[in-house]
Amino acid sequence: MATIRLGDEAPNFNAKTTEGEINFHEWLGNSWGILFSHPADYTPVCTTELGTVAKYKEEFDKRNVKVVALSVDGLESHKGWIGDINETQGTTVNFPIIADEDKKVSELYDMIHPNADSNLTVRSVFVIGDDKKVKLIITYPASTGRNFDELLRVIDSLQLTAYHKVATPANWNNGEDVVVSPAIATEDIPSMFPKGHKVIKPYLRTTPQPNLD
Ligand code: BEZ
């Protein structure tokens, strides 16, 4: 198992999922992707997480993001549990869940942390860009459900900063002012950011979010 770091190509794999066999890179196509693991089927926090992801489909679609979940449970288990998720969370699961019984993908992505649990995956999230590079890695323990609003917020930042020479400050939300990249000289800001800018310090320059009308 190699360490996966930001900027690396997301390792490719073939896997069985609730929506058929996939080759990860082919399945991603030209989309961004989220690969996220959960510890086990038929568990309470995971049930709320997968229901939440299903409800956010429109938000992921708007951002051109495909989502795939994973646990080390088998296909029959996943399929039975989807019924419970739909029933209890008032939704329809609309993304594939990988059945990683042989732990091939979990090991490839280092999703099993033996000092937390020797057999089950932790709550890993990998955001993968449309260039197949890893853009974000976050890891939560089994006891803490993820905040998927934060995930959308980060994707907004990742997609904005991939295409514009800006960075997003603490607690930034889509629509708020952003920071001009330190690599841009202050005298070049007006031509690059015609909506205006503020120089708070020579290294701290802000501008309205450039990709909004
Ligand atoms: C849960 O999803 O509720 C859960 C799974 C494994 C350990 C603890 C909680």
From TrEMBL:
This chain's protein is named Alkyl hydroperoxide reductase subunit C-like protein
A GO MF annotation of the entry reads: peroxiredoxin activity
Q: Which domain of life is it from?
A: Bacteria
UniProt record similarity statement: Belongs to the peroxiredoxin family. Prx6 subfamily. Belongs to the peroxiredoxin family. AhpC/Prx1 subfamily.
**From which source organism is this entry?**
Jejuia pallidilutea
Q: Which example biological process does GO assign this protein? A: cell redox homeostasis
Report the InterPro entries cross-referenced here.
Answer: AhpC/TSA (IPR000866), Peroxiredoxin_AhpC-typ (IPR024706), Peroxiredoxin_C (IPR019479), PRX_1cys (IPR045020), Thioredoxin-like_sf (IPR036249), Thioredoxin_domain (IPR013766)
Its keywords, alphabetically, are: Antioxidant, Oxidoreductase, Peroxidase, Redox-active center
List the catalytic residues: C46
List the CDD domains hit by this protein, alphabetically.
Answer: PRX_1cys
Pull one GO CC term from this UniProt entry: cytosol
Q: Which PROSITE patterns match?
A: THIOREDOXIN_2
Residue span of the signal peptide, if any?
none
